[in-house]
Design a protein that fits this description.
The chain has about 170 residues and is mainly alpha-helical. The protein is built from six helices and three strands. The protein has helices at about 5-20, 30-50, 55-75, 95-120, 120-130, 140-165, and strands spanning about 25, 80-85, 90-95. Strands 1-3-2 form a three-stranded antiparallel beta sheet. Strand 2 (about 80-85) and strand 3 form a beta hairpin. Helix 2 (about 30-50) packs antiparallel against helix 6 and helix 3 runs antiparallel to helix 4 (about 95-120). It is elongated and about 60 Å long.
């Protein structure tokens, strides 16, 4: 499988799971928390086992986690919460901005891989950057997987914190 095929497969899988389980108005329950966590953790396990772990690789992965944290903050901010006044159940609302946030994260990954494989200028400068900083190309895929894991984890934690501090009335963003 080429890097582009792998990027499309992993990105599409995570995007599909998140959209199918989170998009629209959904009751907030353990299923809504565990499904994105368990699915991204499973994908993460298969793509992170055997990843390079030299000192500089940890810096690369840290940057991936920070990028994922930023996207997770935006995804959380674009998720609304409602509490039903009759039964007290809490619901998440994920619409266009949530979808756009996830599409931007997926486009970042696919665009990077596409440019690295098909754009001579980008490929050359990427190679120079990696060589100059002693980063091996095998650290790139884990960067994006860690980014996705951090994005999902950040959103799950922040929504959970918002729900736990929620009042019985309508919960705003």
């Amino acid at each position: 499988m080429t890097d582009m095929q792998q990027a499309l497969t992993v990105s599409g899988l995570i995007f599909g799971i998140v959209m199918m389980s989170q998009y629209g108005r959904r009751e907030y329950n353990w299923h809504r928390v565990l499904l994105p966590l368990s699915s991204t953790a499973t994908v993460g396990y298969f793509y992170l086992k055997g990843m390079p772990i030299q000192a500089v690789d940890w810096v690369v992965y840290g940057v991936g986690a920070l990028v994922g944290l930023a996207f997770g903050l935006v995804a959380s901010a674009t998720t609304g919460l409602d509490r039903d006044a009759t039964d007290g159940r809490t619901y998440t609302r994920c619409g266009t901005w949530f979808l756009t946030t996830w599409l931007a994260a997926v486009a970042l990954r696919i665009g990077f891989v596409y440019a690295a494989e098909h754009n001579t200028w980008f490929h050359q400068h990427l190679g120079e950057f990696l060589t100059e900083h002693d980063i091996i190309t095998d650290a790139i895929a884990p960067f994006f997987v860690i980014m996705a894991l951090a994005m999902v984890l950040t959103r799950v934690v922040l929504i959970g914190l918002r729900v736990s501090g929620a009042s019985p009335a309508r919960i705003s963003r």
